[in-house]
Amino acid sequence: MWTRTRPFNGVVHHRPFCLAEGDRRPLESAPVTEIPEHLLKRSQERRAALGLGGGDGGAEAPAAGATEPSTAVAKSAETAPAAPVGRAARAEPTPAPAAKPDPPYVVAAKRRRRVPYFAMPVLALLPVWGMFYWFSVQPPPPDQNDPLVVGAQVYAANCSTCHGSNGEGGSGPKLADGEVLKTFKDPLAQARWVTYGKTHGGPDANGNYGDKDRPGGQRSVDEFGGAMPSAEKDLGLTPDQIVAVVRHERETLSKEKTPPAGQEVTTDKVAAYIKDNPATG
After folding, report:
1. Residue 166: which residues within 8 A CB-CB, separation 6 or more?
2. What percent of the chain has a predicted confidence (pLDDT) above 70?
3. Domain range 147-276, CATH class
4. Residue 17: CB partners within 8 Å, gap ≥ 6?
5. How far apart are CA 26 and CA 1, in angstroms?
6. In the chain, which ranges are continuous DSSP H helix?
7. 247, 264 Cβ separation under 8 angstroms
8. What are φ and ψ of residue 4, in 5° steps?
9. Is 178 left (phi over 0), alpha (psi -120 to 50) or beta?
10. Over the range 28-66, which residues count as b (16 or more CB within 10 Å of their CB) and which as e?
């Protein structure tokens, strides 16, 4: 025997009962969970709000209202704006032109190894070091007691009037460009001639002076109009000044190489040579 139970979601449920031996206990079946009344009521209200119906006749309500969505879709289709006809195709973007390749010198510069950072201070101080190095290799300022300095001063004050400021010659013979070395191969013979001059027994008995083997012949006191004065007697020069001016004429004006140490002209050597070769007449 079947019995009717309360509806759930618009559906009527039936449960079987056994009437044998006056027993109305339901037959063994799957257990059914009882749903509280307030939940059933809330479900029915929700379905009614959605237009789905509720109660026993709620199952048929959705069928009646099922046509409403389709009608709404049809109306929306009618009111929808028509798609534009003949729309122009979208223009494709123009690709950017390819970059020009770098010149060879730019490629080489990019491949070159960069200067490490720790070398920057060294490079910054390099100009300072170069300045100090340049000053260190410069020749020291001339000493006022240097024989060549003294000789240049004596020559400018006493000899340049006749022989020229640079030994180019004038009323006296030329001394520059090796001329004095041709006339006097021995610096001691030149020192004797400077000491005595023409006026105090410098030339020989024939009025000549200098080397006899000189190219062009031995010098004569009559070649030039000027008379060679005695550096000692006429000009009052000291033996040191005479030695200095001889060295200046030979090493500076005639570019003779500086004699090695021990072979340069000294006052002692000049004194000994003059003693052995005294003045004539």
Report:
1. 176, 253
2. 74
3. mainly alpha
4. 1, 2, 3, 24, 25, 26, 27
5. 9
6. 37-49, 61-64, 67-79, 104-111, 120-137, 147-158, 160-163, 179-183, 187-196, 239-247, 267-276
7. yes
8. -90, 140
9. left
10. eeeeeeeeeeeeeeebbeebeeeebbbeeebbebeeeee
In 175-281, which residue ranges form alpha helices assigned H by DSSP? 179-183, 187-196, 239-247, 267-276
Distances (CA, A) of 111 to 88, 103, 106, 108, 208: 50, 13, 9, 5, 79
Say what angle helices 187-196 and 267-276 make with each other, to 10 degrees.
70
Question: What is the tens place of the pLDDT at every residue in 135-186?
Answer: 888 876 767 788 999 999 999 999 999 999 999 999 899 999 999 999 999 9
Q: Which pTM was predicted?
A: 0.50
Mean pLDDT highest for which of 11-25, 34-48, 59-73, 219-233? 219-233
Amino acid at 48: A
Question: Residue range 66-78: average pLDDT?
Answer: 48
Q: Which two tokens stand for residue 256?
A: 């003779």
Residue 33 DSSP symbol? P
Neighbours of 145 (CB within 10 A): 9
Alpha-carbon distances of 52 from 37, 58, 59, 64, 140, rounded to whole Å: 19, 7, 8, 9, 119
| Exposure of 20 in the CB half-sphere (CA atoms within 13 A) | 3
Domain ranges of the chain: 2-58, 147-276
CA distance 46 to 48: 5
- Cβ atoms of 163 and 246 within 8 Å: the answer is no
**How high does pLDDT run on average in the chain?**
79
